[in-house]
Amino acid sequence: xxxxxxxxxxxxDDQTPRDALEATMKLAQTAESLGYTRFWVAEHxxxxxxxxxxxxxxxxxxxxNTNEIRIGSGAVxxxxxxxxxxxETYNMLGTLYPGRxxxxxxxxxxxxxxxxxxxxxxxxxSVFRMPDLxxxxxxxxxDADEKIKAGPVPPVKPDIxxxxxxxxxxxxxxxxxxxxxxxxxxxxxxxxxxIDEYQKSFKPRYEGQEPYTIVTLSVICAEDTEAAARxxxxxxxxxxxxxxxxxxxxLPSLEAAEAATLSPDEQKQMDDMKxxxxxxxxxxxxxxxxxxxxxTEADEIMIVTITHSPEDKRESYRLIAEQxxxxxxxx
Length: 331
Hints:
about 325 residues, alpha/beta, TIM Barrel, eight-stranded parallel β-barrel, 10 strands, Luciferase, Bact_Lucif_Oxidored, oxidoreductase activity, acting on paired donors, with incorporation or reduction of molecular oxygen, Luciferase-like_sf
C-alpha cells in the first residue's frame, strides 16, 4: 500500500513561523528517507496558527532539499488565481524537479471571508467559474493551447489532482480526466461512495490513463495508545479553542492542553473530531489504515499528522512506515 503525507505547517506555541516552515522541510526529508510516495503542502490564508500560505514557495524549497519524493500542493485554491499563472508556476517547478510535481487543485477559501475579499475581487463568482478555470489550467499544463505556452514547458508535465470532500469534486475530477484526492479528514461524506462515483464516471484525458485515488486521513501514532491520545489532545484542544482564546492561537504544549478548561460543547466537539481520526499504537493504526484502504479501494492513503513537537510528528510517521515496511529508516 502506498502512503503519502500532507503537511499544513502548523505553528506550535514555542515556534516562530520560520521554525514551522523549517519543520515542514525537514519532515519532507524524513518522508523521503522513510519511503513515502509524495509530500504535499497545504494553502491557508489569514490563519495565524498555520504558516503555509504559499505552497509553491515551499515546494521550491522542499524540492531543492530532497531528491526523489513527489512534491505538490494540497491544494492550489484555484478561484483566487489565473490558471495561466498557476500553469507557469508549476511548469517551472516541473522543469526544476522533473517527474516529481503534482498540482493539487481545490476551490475552498482556505481562510476567513475578510481575507478572501482581499485575495480576490469576487471569490464566489470565481467559485462559480471553477469548471472553466479547471479547463483552462488543463489546457495550459497539457500544452494544448495553439497560441499560448505556459513556459518553461517541463520534460514531464505535472500531474493534476482534484481535491475535495464530496461527490461534486469527484464528478469534476472524473469529467476532466484528473486524479482525485478525497479529504476524509475534513468530510462527513462516506469515502467509498465518493470514490466509487469517481471511478465509474472517469473519462481519460489521454490514451492509457487510468483513474487514481487518494484518501486523506488524520492520524497520530505513538509507541502506545495512551501516548498517542496525549499527543492528539493538544491538537484537539487547539481546534476547539483557537478561535475563542488568544492563548490557544498556536498549537499548545501537551501540558497546556491538559490544563485547559473545556465546556460541555467543546468536549463534545472534541469527541466528535476524535471519532474522525486514527489515534493509537503502530499495530492498531496499521489495522485501521488497512481497513479503510480495503473499504474505499483507494490507490493510496495520505496522512495528516499534527502534534506540538516536530519530533513527535516525525516519529509518528516513522512508526507507520516501519509497520508497512515502506523503506529506509535511517533518520
